[in-house]
Amino acid sequence: MGKYLLGLDAGNTVIKAVIFDLEGHELAYAAREGHTRMPAPGHVERGLDELWTNAQAVILQCIGKSGITANEIAAVGCAGHGNGLYALDKAGEPLVAIQSLDTRASQLAGALEAAGVGNLTYPISQQRPWPSQTPTLLAWLKRHDPERFARIGTVLLCKDFISNRLTGERASDVSDMLGCGLLNVGERRYDRRIMEAYGLGGHMDFLPTLVESDDIVGRVTAQAAAATGLCAGTPVIGGLFDVIASAIGSGVTRTGAASIIAGTWSINQVITDRPKLDAPIFMSSSFDRSRYMAMENSATSAANLEWMVREFFADCPEGTSPFDLCCELAASVEPQPDAPFYHPFLYGAQTDGNARAGFHGLAGWHTKAHLMRAVLEGVVFGHRWHIEKLKAAGAPFAEAVLSGGGSRSKVWPQIFADVLGVPVSIARSPETGALGAAIAAGTGVGFFKDFEAGAASMVTIERHYQPDPVFADLYERRYRIYCDIAQAMTPIWKRMAELGTAA
Question: What pLDDT is stored for residue 101 in this prediction?
Fold first, then answer.
């Protein structure tokens, strides 16, 4: 058996391949960005053929750059963004890929909730209907695109599609299926009552084979080996919901430990020994074979900075990183009482699909730097809103590890520490999702006893940030105003949505 591990990380936009040794050092990295399609307002899709083409390319490139041969790769692990809807047709061919930024089902999610669906599902799955949730999207397709719905053979999630192309198997793992609300949390199995609540009771056959994250789901086929440069027969493990993979890859493995991910989504999660807490939370997923991850999430994090860069900083001088420039602008002004506020709702809010992003409190003396700082602060305020819900439910924490694109900034991690009032650490490897997938792969083939042992071997914490007490009171008061503005805007956002529907 080889002594290297290949981790794949498939997000909403970019797919990455990273080869690690057993101490967590990166031998090689490759990434490729895909194209998002928005065929109608609120519809966010991608091409599955392109996703597989990009996966082949990054695996080939990564192996080529690594200086090792493919037979030295002991196993492959894949992580991918949760929810959305990735489906094969009845012949096993690509059918549809709806991403987790999609909001087409906002009205349906509200209607399902009003009809009491959440009261039926939450005690079983720890989830209520929400717009880009997999069963909600399935219900939407059944109502609004029955021709495509009738062609569905198997419902997968993002990373499962890549594993399917590598192995030919139609399977998903417990962490991802818990994350999309399709499992009985306590029993870790499919539950017909969930599908029935969404009007999908006659379609249990859509659901793939269920495995644990570190189970070997299949082996690389000869056809996939020819396309990727991997060796035929290389084990591929069940894989992970990417937020779980990122927690493992940043060293968050003990009960009570917290992982915050500032990626496309705002991910805020704490490892627990029990699947159900003292108050409702957004979702509960599996951490390993016996523990759980309590989560409060929404599409309100670094996607906001990505949008700012794309729309306003794309013409940066050559050799200048627009992301670094944005963060340098933000760092050039200190927190101020009269600074503007930003609400990071480009793709809606967790509890309100009608919510929209916006600046409040702008004055003539504010500059581009003030706006950029407002964006970074507004994203962190959004994280804090989720974290307060976790604490109220009985999942407090005294420190956190930050990962995702936001962790690479020189200023953003300090804002996290200051706003949250807890020490924040950053792991050495920026590719925590791929590293977590690699750790799961190493566990699956017996290199490690469990995820905790794998992380102890492969993860190193590199940076630490302490909250600055000078800004504690100011951030506390600004956060409360941020929440009050959002509450006051709720009926306005509803009227804006109704205006759009009427038009």
Answer: 87
